[in-house]
Amino acid sequence: MPDRTAADNALEVLSYAISFGSFYLFVWVARKLVKTGYQEKTGLWSRLLHACVSEQLDPGEKLKLAAEASDKGKKDKATESFCYSALHLCACTGGIIVAYVLWGYMQERIMTKPYATGELFHSSKFLVFANRVLALFVAYIAREIQRRNGTDVSHTAPLYQFSFSSVSNIVSSVCQYEALKYISFPTQVLSKSCKMVPVMMMGYLVSRKVYPMTEYLVAVMVRACPNLGLRLARAGC
Length: 237
Description:
This protein is mainly α. The chain has helices at residues 6-35, 44-53, 59-79, 82-112, 124-148, 163-179, 185-192, 196-207, 213-234. The protein is 74% helix and 0% strand. The mean pLDDT is 78.
């Protein structure tokens, strides 16, 4: 088990609180400035300010673009052949499986196996940082490809609204890497397979969203399959 003191844990929590707190303090100040009538100008600071806290389109334009995107999606689906759709599905499924298998292997290798010096890799935060930087470059390349193909890639929501999912994702990723110092990757996957149940519960409690019975069945299967696979592996099947 890693030799960590209470002071180390407190310092790490403090570093996250300062990082995220500074960002949300900036958002609070920016929203106050925009509400007081601060006008968008050509400068970098002004454009950054408005991009973070202001919607990019008025509601009427937003509805118009949503309707156009919906019509375009229906037309694209109508023109796709069955073979093309099946091949597309297989390629996407295979890509996800291969990527996740490699990702799981590499993260357990990095976090649990000693290196030539006999030491383990300790910095989960660096792994998350490297992961997010690479994802940023991949997202930028994908955005440019879509934009050059004529796809509308503009967003309407203020940038700070994306931070809610981003912060939770960053914290969960750090916890995920830290957990590998105590448990194996299969055990971690088995635990993570339970997350659909609380997600559906929160969807019902917060948004009063009613799920069809098929989605409940999928949640149960997602929960049961990793458990069954782990038991079979331990039994030597």
